[in-house]
């Protein structure tokens, strides 16, 4: 059997488009992570606005323009407040936006879906900016990205190449237990390797990387369940081969929320944050 026959293309016809999008977006993201400050915050704010818009679009097909304004305004405002370290105002802004989204959606039914999406997007985006803005934020964010990107990539590749028992058919018919274990294992290994290169405690790095890798894989499943509920295949069409922004960063979102909680509760904080 030829090498081309072994590639994931026959099982995933958009593999090459996925690869091309990743090769463009990854260097851009890493460059802005390295810059930090307002360039990174503006980049995240733009993505947060796109994610909030996609959530409204797929969850509320009768949404008026004000629903999009509330969701995107909440997400962007939360990111900018987090970039300035205004965490009390950030939390208040998110809660106000969630309340506004609920009141706007109430007459159209299933009102709880609106604030749920607003809170999830705004919290994940603001925590991501907060991690980078903290002391040693570059190391903390690179550690998180290493875990998430490795988990997401190897879960996809193992599931595509090797197949195996279905992980959660109600969420996605393509995700397998093979992909789950490959993603979690490779994500944890990537975290330990990155931490080891910086001279950080490998055991502590593993304690953060392993559950973060689980959260990355779970984040993909959560978004798949949401799309199933709303009857859509993709959250959007912005990124070739991936769909929307929510489709591309679903693994990062839940892992980022976990990293924020870990940094608050763990004695030494999130790995890399002391660099």
From TrEMBL:
<comment type="similarity">
    <text>Belongs to the CDS family.</text>
</comment>
<feature type="transmembrane region" description="Helical">
    <location>
        <begin position="251"/>
        <end position="270"/>
    </location>
</feature>
<dbReference type="GO" id="GO:0016779">
    <property type="term" value="F:nucleotidyltransferase activity"/>
</dbReference>
<feature type="transmembrane region" description="Helical">
    <location>
        <begin position="176"/>
        <end position="198"/>
    </location>
</feature>
<keyword id="KW-0472">Membrane</keyword>
<keyword id="KW-0808">Transferase</keyword>
<protein>
    <recommendedName>
        <fullName>Phosphatidate cytidylyltransferase</fullName>
        <ecNumber>2.7.7.41</ecNumber>
    </recommendedName>
</protein>
<keyword id="KW-0443">Lipid metabolism</keyword>
<feature type="transmembrane region" description="Helical">
    <location>
        <begin position="140"/>
        <end position="164"/>
    </location>
</feature>
<feature type="transmembrane region" description="Helical">
    <location>
        <begin position="115"/>
        <end position="134"/>
    </location>
</feature>
<keyword id="KW-1003">Cell membrane</keyword>
<dbReference type="Pfam" id="PF01148">
    <property type="entry name" value="CTP_transf_1"/>
</dbReference>
<keyword id="KW-0812">Transmembrane</keyword>
<feature type="transmembrane region" description="Helical">
    <location>
        <begin position="204"/>
        <end position="223"/>
    </location>
</feature>
<keyword id="KW-0444">Lipid biosynthesis</keyword>
<keyword id="KW-1208">Phospholipid metabolism</keyword>
<keyword id="KW-1133">Transmembrane helix</keyword>
<comment type="pathway">
    <text>Lipid metabolism.</text>
</comment>
<keyword id="KW-0548">Nucleotidyltransferase</keyword>
<keyword id="KW-0594">Phospholipid biosynthesis</keyword>
<feature type="transmembrane region" description="Helical">
    <location>
        <begin position="20"/>
        <end position="53"/>
    </location>
</feature>
<comment type="pathway">
    <text>Phospholipid metabolism; CDP-diacylglycerol biosynthesis; CDP-diacylglycerol from sn-glycerol 3-phosphate: step 3/3.</text>
</comment>
């Amino acid at each position: 059997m030829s090498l081309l026959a072994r590639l994931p293309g026959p099982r995933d016809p958009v593999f090459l488009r996925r690869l091309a999008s990743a090769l463009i977006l990854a260097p851009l993201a890493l460059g802005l992570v390295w810059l930090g400050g307002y360039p990174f915050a503006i980049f995240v704010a733009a993505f947060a606005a796109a994610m909030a818009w996609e959530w409204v679009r797929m969850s509320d097909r009768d949404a008026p323009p004000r629903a999009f304004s509330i969701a995107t305004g909440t997400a962007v405002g939360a990111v900018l407040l987090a970039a300035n370290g205004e965490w009390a105002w950030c939390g208040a802004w998110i809660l106000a936006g969630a309340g506004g989204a609920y009141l706007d959606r109430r007459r159209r039914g299933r009102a709880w879906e609106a604030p749920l999406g607003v809170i999830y997007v705004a919290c994940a985006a603001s925590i991501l900016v907060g991690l980078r803005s903290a002391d040693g934020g570059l190391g903390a964010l690179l550690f998180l990205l290493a875990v998430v990107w490795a988990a997401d990539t190897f879960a996809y590749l193992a599931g595509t190449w090797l197949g195996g028992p279905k992980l959660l058919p109600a969420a996605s018919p393509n995700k397998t237990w093979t992909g789950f274990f490959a993603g979690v294992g490779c994500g944890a290994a990537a975290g330990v390797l990155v931490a080891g290169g910086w001279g950080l405690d490998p055991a502590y790095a593993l304690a953060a990387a392993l559950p973060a890798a689980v959260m990355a894989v779970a984040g993909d499943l959560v978004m798949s369940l949401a799309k199933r509920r709303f009857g859509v295949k993709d959250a959007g069409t912005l990124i070739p081969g991936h769909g929307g922004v929510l489709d591309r960063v679903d693994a990062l979102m839940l892992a980022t929320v976990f990293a924020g909680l870990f940094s608050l509760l763990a004695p030494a904080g999130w790995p890399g944050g002391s660099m």
